[in-house]
Write a structure and sequence with these properties.
Blueprint lengths: L10 E4 L2 H23 L3 H15 L9 E8 L2 E9 L8 E9 L8 H15 L4 E4 L6 H9 L23
Parallel strand pairs: 4-5
Antiparallel strand pairs: 1-2, 2-3, 3-4
InterPro entries: Acyl_CoA_acyltransferase (IPR016181), GNAT_dom (IPR000182), MshD_Acetyltransferase (IPR050276)
GO molecular function: acyltransferase activity, transferring groups other than amino-acyl groups
Protein name: N-acetyltransferase domain-containing protein
Length: about 170
Amino acid sequence: MPVPSTGVTVTLRAMTEDELEARIDDLVDEYALDLHRSRGLPLDRARTEAQRQTADLLPDGVATTGTLMFTAEAGGAAVGWIWLSLSTPHQPGSAWIYEITVDAEHRGKGYGRALIRAAEDELARRGVTRLALNVFSHNTAAIRLYESVGFHTTSLQMAKSIGPAAEPAKW
């Protein structure tokens, strides 16, 4: 499916450790909120889980093997960032988007699409032929963006709380 052109372009450059450090708390906070909304985890537990998973996935920060982290720039200014994971032996030729963020003041201007296009170009140069991601069902703006650039649903997870207290499902 062709990606609609917005006329907006971004340049990707390797993210520095300082840039990651400046963004990591927001990343963890946003992921904790997603875990709270999707799994019903209490916020303190969701934050602990988000911190643990992030630390596990980025043991060496921006230098983590198999990880690409880029700052997206337009007109010389940072407009967002993307965190990609390269293929594993179980998924050769694939990459995964762990995080894509367009900074709040730059949203709604086409930078999200441009950032995805730039990431696709970078990954294609590296021989990647498939790009995937996870998006929480409550994030309808992101779902619309991803669908507009050609992503489609490949699996669907559903959950339901059961039992006398109907506590949120924990997995």
